[in-house]
UniProtKB/TrEMBL annotation:
Gene Ontology biological process terms from the UniProt entry: glycogen biosynthetic process; glycogen catabolic process
Protein name, per record: Glycogen debranching enzyme
Organism, scientific name: Lates calcarifer (Barramundi)
Annotated Glycogen debranching enzyme central domain residues: 683-957
Keyword Calcium: no
Reaction it catalyzes: Hydrolysis of (1->6)-alpha-D-glucosidic branch linkages in glycogen phosphorylase limit dextrin; Transfers a segment of a (1->4)-alpha-D-glucan to a new position in an acceptor, which may be glucose or a (1->4)-alpha-D-glucan
Chain ranges of the Glycogen debranching enzyme C-terminal domain: 1056-1509
Keyword Transferase: yes
Length: 1514
């Protein structure tokens, strides 16, 4: 199962989390499970329950359905989902933050408000002194106290070496009165309620103190030589190293070059030689892994002599592969054995008898193999020994020679050569006597492994478990005062330990609001999970922090997810490189300054773990070693400006260098003048109070945006910004790059420009150090005496570090230029900045007008004295006036369409032009920028640099009339506010205006569409927008004029002639190539798209007008493909007329009283075949007459040469190609036509390459009877029969004139002829002797339908193409259900791609799946010759899926249900493409396997329309 452990999803309580199906899961049986507890149930990590699906529109649409969790309980929760038969497909974690409460009213303490101070418990003294000592935290502005363990400590005194997890440290008991956990609890509760301070403490699960009494009573709780015998070799080495250390301390190795005081490289090299030659070689550790060769061979010999039958009977195939070594579970020297099953299988010859010589040969082979195995194990141990030697030597160098090390001095028994890895609770004895202890279980069980940590290893792996060689390789950084605890996999493995630690956890959870996980990485994760579950059962809002040292955010996320860690402690002192601070603060900040407003419902994206940013963590006791006293104040300022929890350790603010074991914290006394008490004059306490207050204020007031700038080396500026009122707090701090005591710094730093108006200096402070050091019994620092000069809440002119402040007007706003003086290392200054009054007013008014789009803008909004009239009403009231044609202008229109009006799409310098002139062009880019807050994007730069983009949006609409102009005025006024605010805020507010207008426009669009669109899924709505995208009024290439007698025709004022003219909607074939000029109106594309884009969306009037406009162009019985306003139309396609007739049928069927269109007047542009184009009304006739003429002409036969035939009409086509022919076969009723020199169907690519010799040659002539045209004809004939019978069509037949005689062909008879002949002629049966098959030698696939019948090149008939599903959908009665289903299955298997249908069987010799218009030498591909010879077109997919659904229903419910799921899954890919495409459309075609085709239209009308039809059928 795929796991998402490394992806962190953090949410606050109160959020609703929705699970939605991704594209690969739509159409499948998916169930989501979670262990988030249901109402009134307790959390059980192993108990998962399913979530119910919610259908927001009442329909089972996979693209919109979701299941939800209302997150009200803190913790870490898992989810996974099943799919079909797969029980668990994928899963992950959700971490819900706790809610902390303080004060008498239980006020919420936001996580980002936390200011924590750590107290070392051993420094607190008796409990009755605690309040005076922790009062320092309260008086310096902290609101959380973190205590190190309060339990009884081990003899080492280490804070984390806990001797008794259940007993309080006896040092806390004042005057002999025992201190209890109840006392601690009462104190903690008093601090929470009265002081408003949350208390947390440490928990340590990985180890216990080495002197813990209970571990000696229950040694099974640790790793000892009985329950972990695999540690024996490591223990032997550990004892040998101890004895070596003692001998070095005694000077016994001085003559060999290793004195007690190791001082140089020669000593180190000598030590390395001793380790290798005298320690490892003498220990012979390899024997713990080896087998006794002689014993094993003797056992093998006895088995051979006995026949080996009893042993061999259990052998398995695996045993024959290699000889298996069996590890001795007690790890004795030469204790390993061999699997005799495998030995007999490998070394016994396959014969019935064994002679003595054969037996000896077998034994010799066996012996040699054993010796090889032993040799391999010898090498393995030697490799471990080499690593151990390196680790020992490196440790010696660090501890005794390295500058950054402790420099322990001579080797002694207290400071041995290397740390001991195991306890030795016995009297001293020699090495040989010690070795005997291993076999004495009653003593060996008390030899326990110490705890520690391992650098660079798998952090989720327990280094003391079997298989680990950490102890043997000496890779452990050992904590010698502790014993590593051994939990096992479950409580039953070590009941006492689990019970004890659970009680320890429950005591802690009852008293404290949170815990810090100490040694988190060294504790088995499943143990910490179980303990935290027990804690949360008591304290559901448990605050959990940990300090991880993984070095990897992804690995951090694993621990955060599994344990539900609330905050990770990060130490600013560890950031050695000053340049890195900006990265850290940006990481721990919420978002950048000027960030975009995110929608309420948005995708959940992986987050970064919440942070507690420490100026000094408990792990760093000696910060002065890493930095100077001048770092403290700037460092604390840097931390306090972070948008996260912050913290420090008691002593840091007092500038304590180190804390001794017997040190006790000083008490608070506001009047103190001695070193045993502290007040605001001590160290940097006064500065810290101001910083903590400021940190908490910024978090509470929503200063969530952060910007970090490095002004120069050592000088950093940090800005915290509030996105609602746009106030800022700007901190400038100077840290010393070198120690100021030894390096002279200039006082000057570069001037700084602050956007806005500085209202006050919140705080300025300088670190002042005296020239003398003082060290006495009371001053434990030995540091220079340091004071901090502080000024709070002063004006700029009163500042001691601001030399000059100048107001500068720039970019419609005011900036403040700050010049510093005496800004020395250790100095800080913090400004409070707001917008200048005019900008505040404009921004407040703007936010007020944005409330209509989101209540988020309520905060910071202001009423204005005089509101522009256009803004006195909601934008929806203006948008509702717009027609869908207006919406085309408002939302879309690509560059080619815009240029028709003399404009163009907005071009962003140094980037790209927008895809559309309308709002969608901007929205497509903003949708990419907004979630990532990509404020550096060129679009954002353009907005900050000038008003050009705003002016483009408004001016484009102001140039129009009516409601569009009103929208333009609305934008103009809204942008006027925007032009008076600081430029850095331009992108976010521009986005808010555009996004608000866009969503309002879409809402208005859908209100004008059909109920099918309004009540359907988001995918239907997205596709329906294709109707707005493609349908507009194009004056330069309008439709032919409709009859003046036709009602409800739209007229508009022509700007040139100043007269009223028809302005009917035309439908672009595709964007951006087929949408303007003569290439906009394509008959076939328009008519294929009309049902989906106009009829299903409710745009019936536009559909009627387009049908009637094309009816007016009928000539010679044909409808032109390329319309060219009708006057320059080409009548060279055979199928457009049938698509036109199909549209009329669909109109009559789908539109209320649709049959009335049959009587509508049609103004014929060509009353006869030879006439010149006529004006509207010159020759009107009802539509039913035009329909009859089209049918009559086909039956009579169509044969003509195109007008103006020749190079002037088409310079590519050969002369024969200008001859157009179509007719009806009198025997079959099939429509036929075309020749091998032209291509009259939608697969109409004509070769253009002279270089490849395909110029003038049709790639796909498809002459004869094309399958989809036959299907369309059958559909129309059947419909006309029904119309006539219902009295809606006056004609029952067509007449045929042959040789002077007239014959009548009734529509009933025509319908029968096609029905009887279709499958006979088109179906390729499985019978090789089928008498209907004229060319059996050309058959290469059976069980399919031919692409054509009667082609001039017979092999073309047999090509598998995606055209027969079209016939299936328009005339399903032609197909036998079982045959149709099989053919569709073949098409699915061979033709279906990710988005489209392959236009040719990939098994065909001329298949070429990648389309390119470039010229080359390849006949089958040059200049796009393969346009329909493989590339995957999208519009046929619609017919294929509809046919699948239709015939699946005939096959039964089970098949239908499976097909519905298949269709949903396929459509999900189109949904993804729609979502991701900046064009918000579906392409005309893709290359093979769905690869993008750069030569295709990015949004094709027919692609969108036919997919919409599938959803209508669903």
């Amino acid at each position: 199962m795929e796991r998402l452990e490394q992806a962190l999803f953090r949410l606050e309580q109160g959020f609703e989390l929705q699970f939605r199906l991704g594209p690969t899961l739509q159409g499948k049986e998916v169930q989501v499970y979670t262990n988030y507890p249901t109402k009134s149930h307790k959390f059980d990590s192993q108990k998962f329950h399913p979530l119910d699906w919610v259908y927001p529109n009442g329909q089972e649409d996979d693209c919109d359905k979701y299941c939800r969790l209302d997150l009200m309980v803190a913790g870490s929760y898992q989810y996974y989902f099943s799919c079909g038969d797969k029980e668990k497909v994928s899963g992950g974690y959700i971490v819900v933050d706790p809610v902390l409460r303080v004060g008498a009213n239980n006020d919420i303490l936001p996580l980002d408000c936390i200011s924590s101070q750590t107290y070392l418990a051993r420094c607190l003294g008796p409990l009755d002194k605690w309040l005076d000592r922790v009062r320092v935290a309260k008086e310096t502005g902290y609101n959380m106290i973190h205590f190190t363990p309060l339990q009884k400590l081990g003899v080492s005194g280490c804070c984390y070496s806990v001797a008794d997890q259940l007993e309080l440290n006896p040092d806390f008991s004042p005057n002999g009165r025992p201190c209890t956990w109840r006392d601690i609890g009462e104190l903690v509760e008093m601090l929470r309620k009265d002081w408003g301070m949350v208390c947390i403490t440490d928990v340590v699960y990985s180890h216990t103190a080495v002197d813990s009494e209970w571990i000696h009573l229950h040694p099974e709780c640790g790793f000892n030589l009985v329950n972990a015998p695999y540690l024996k070799p490591a223990w032997v080495l550990d004892r040998a190293l101890w004895h070596l250390s003692c001998e070095v301390a005694d000077g016994k190795y001085a003559e060999q070059g290793v004195p007690a005081l190791i001082q140089d490289e020669q000593h180190i090299n000598a030590l390395r030689c001793i380790l290798w030659q005298q320690v490892f070689s003498r220990l012979r550790l390899w024997e713990f892994l080896q087998v006794s060769v002689d014993s094993a061979v003797e056992q093998f010999r006895q088995l051979l002599q006995a026949g080996g039958l009893g042993v061999r009977s259990g052998s398995s195939p695996e045993s024959k592969k290699q000889l298996k070594m069996v590890q001795d579970p007690q790890y004795r020297r030469f204790g390993n054995t061999v699997d005799m099953n495998s030995a007999l299988d490998i070394f016994t010859p396959h014969s019935d008898s064994m002679s003595p010589s054969t037996t000896q040969d077998c034994c010799n082979c066996f012996r040699r193999r054993l010796e090889e195995l032993n040799s391999e194990l010898y090498k393995e141990i030697n490799q471990h020994a080499e690593q151990a030697t390196n680790c020992i030597v490196e440790n010696v160098i660090y501890e005794r020679l390295a500058d950054q090390g402790p420099k322990l001095g001579p080797v002694t028994r207290k400071n041995p050569l290397c740390p001991r890895y195991f306890t030795f609770p016995f009297e001293e004895m020699n090495f040989e006597e010690e070795m005997q202890l291993m076999e004495q279980r009653e003593k060996a069980c008390y030899i326990l492994a110490h705890d520690g940590f391992v650098k660079g290893k798998d952090l989720q792996w327990d280094f003391a478990e079997p298989g680990s060689e950490v102890y043997l390789r000496r890779e452990l950084v050992c904590q010698g005062s502790t014993v590593k605890l051994r939990y096992g996999e479950k409580p039953e493995d070590c009941p006492y330990l689990w019970t004890r630690m659970k009680a320890y956890t429950e005591i802690t959870a009852k008293v404290f609001s949170g815990v810090r996980l100490v040694n988190c990485l060294s504790t088995p994760v499943h143990v910490t999970e179980a303990m935290l579950a027990a804690a949360r059962a008591i304290k559901p809002n448990l605050y959990v922090i940990a300090e991880l040292f993984t070095g990897s955010q992804l690995i951090d996320n694993v621990f955060v997810n599994r344990l539900g860690i609330t905050s990770l402690m990060r130490d600013a002192i560890d950031v050695v490189d000053h340049q890195e601070e900006g990265h850290w603060l940006s990481w721990f900040g919420r978002e950048p300054v000027g960030a975009f407003v995110q929608p309420n419902l948005r995708p959940l994206i992986p987050a970064v773990a919440h942070t507690m940013f420490m100026d000094m963590s408990p792990s760093n006791y000696s910060p002065i070693q890493k930095c100077s006293v001048y770092d403290f104040l700037p460092n604390s300022t840097l931390v306090s400006m972070a948008c996260c929890a912050t913290g420090s350790t008691r002593g840091h603010d007092e500038l304590l260098h180190q804390i001794s074991e017997d040190h006790k914290y000083t008490c608070w006394n506001s009047e103190a003048h001695t070193y045993d008490q502290v007040n605001l004059q001590t160290g940097i306490l006064a500065g810290k109070l101001a910083l903590n207050r400021l940190h908490q204020e910024m978090a509470a007031e929503g200063f969530t945006q952060v910007y970090v700038e490095q002004l120069c080396e050592g000088v950093t500026a940090v800005t915290r910004h509030c996105p609602s009122n746009h106030q800022s707090v700007v901190a400038v701090l100077r840290r010393p790059v070198k120690n100021p005591e030894r390096h002279h710094y200039k006082d000057d730093v570069p001037p700084m420009r602050i956007p806005g108006q500085v209202k006050e200096v919140v705080l300025e402070a300088q670190t002042i150090v005296s020239n003398t050091n003082r060290k006495d019994d009371k001053n434990i620092n030995g540091l220079p005496v340091c004071t901090v000069e502080i000024n709070e809440h002063i004006q700029l002119e009163d500042s001691k570090v601001v030399k000059k402040a100048t107001m500068v007007s720039k970019h419609n706003g005011v900036n403040q230029d700050i010049v510093f003086e005496k800004f020395t290392p250790g100095s800080i200054i913090i400004f409070r900045v707001s917008l200048e009054p005019r900008s505040q007013e404009q921004l407040g008014a703007l936010r007020r007008h944005l409330i209509q789009f989101s209540p988020q803008y309520q905060t910071g909004s202001l009423a204005e004295n005089s509101t522009p009239s256009i803004l006195t009403k909601p934008l929806m009231s203006i948008m509702s006036k717009l027609t869908l044609v207006d919406m085309n202008m408002l939302l879309y229109r690509c560059d080619a369409e815009e240029r028709e009006d003399g404009g163009g799409c907005y071009n962003i310098p140094s980037w790209l032009p927008l895809k559309y002139g309308g709002l969608q062009g901007l929205m497509s880019v903003m949708a990419e920028i907004r979630p990532k807050n990509d404020l550096g994007h060129p679009l954002c730069d353009n907005l900050r640099q000038g008003d050009w983009m705003m002016d483009y949006v408004s001016d484009r609409l102001l140039a129009k009339s009516g409601a569009l102009k009103e929208v333009g005025q609305w934008f103009q006024v809204m942008f006027n506010y925007l032009k008076h605010i600081p430029r850095y805020l331009m992108p976010c507010y521009f986005d808010a205006i555009i996004q608000g207008a866009y969503t309002t426009a879409l809402e208005a669009v859908f209100k004008r569409m059909s109920r099918f669109v309004q009540n359907s899924s988001s995918l239907v709505k997205q596709l329906a927008l294709g109707s707005v995208q493609m349908c507009g009024v194009d004056r330069s290439c309008a439709l032919p004029k409709l009859s003046p007698h036709l009602k409800d025709v739209t007229y508009c004022l022509d700007e040139v002639s100043n007269q009223e003219e028809q302005c009917c909607v035309s439908l672009a074939a595709g964007l951006p190539h087929l949408c303007a000029g003569k290439f906009r109106c394509w008959g076939r594309d328009t008519l294929i798209s009309l049902r989906g884009l106009l009829l299903l969306t409710g745009r019936h009037l536009e559909a009627r007008n387009i049908i009637l406009a094309f009816a007016g162009t009928l000539r010679c019985g044909l409808i032109p493909n390329l319309l060219g306003q009708g006057g320059s139309a080409r009548y060279n396609c055979r199928d457009a007329v049938w698509w036109w007739l199909q549209c009329i049928q669909e109109y009559c069927t789908l539109v209320p009283d649709g049959v009335s269109i049959l009587k509508c007047p049609v103004s014929r542009m060509y009353p006869d075949n030879t006439s010149e184009p006529q004006p509207a009304q010159a020759s009107d006739q009802p539509l039913y007459d035009v329909i009859q003429e089209a049918m009559q002409r086909h039956v009579q036969g169509i044969q003509f040469r195109e007008t103006n035939a020749g190079p002037q009409l088409d310079c590519i086509m050969t002369d024969e190609g200008f001859s157009v022919e179509a007719g009806v076969d009198q025997n079959t009723g099939f429509i036929y036509g075309g020749n091998r020199f032209n291509c009259g169907t939608w697969m109409d690519k004509m070769g253009e390459s002279e270089r490849a010799h395909n110029k003038g040659i049709p790639a796909t002539p498809r002459d004869g009877s094309a399958v989809e045209i036959v299907g369309l004809c059958k559909s129309i004939v059947r419909w006309l029969v029904k119309l006539h019978n219902n009295g809606n069509f006056p004609y029952a037949a067509v007449s045929i004139c042959r040789e002077g005689e007239t014959y009548s062909l009734s529509y009933v008879e025509w319908d029968r002829m096609i029905q009887e002949n279709f499958e006979k002629k088109f179906y390729i049966s499985h019978d090789p002797l089928d008498p209907e098959e004229k060319h059996p030698e050309l058959v290469h696939k059976r069980g399919i339908y031919k692409d054509s019948f009667g082609a001039s090149s017979p092999w073309c008939d047999y090509q598998l193409r995606p055209n027969f599903p079209i016939a299936m959908m328009v005339a399903p009665e032609l197909f036998t259900v079982e045959k149709a289903w099989e053919a569709l299955s073949v098409a699915e298997r061979k033709l279906l791609g990710p988005l489209g249908m392959k236009t040719l069987d990939p098994d065909d010799l001329v298949y070429r799946g990648v389309y390119s218009n470039m010229d080359n030498d390849n006949f089958n591909q040059a200049m796009g010759f393969n346009y329909h010879q493989g590339p995957e077109w999208l519009w046929p997919v619609g017919y294929f899926l509809r046919a699948k659904l239709y015939f699946a229903k005939k096959m039964g419910k089970e098949t239908y249900d499976k097909t519905v799921n298949l269709v949903k899954n396929i459509l999900s890919r189109h949904a993804v493409h729609l979502e991701r495409s900046p064009w918000k459309g579906l392409p005309g075609l893709t290359n093979e396997n769905g690869q993008h085709c750069s030569f295709s239209c990015e949004s094709q009308a027919s692609s969108i329309a036919t997919i919409l039809e599938v959803l209508y059928d669903l």
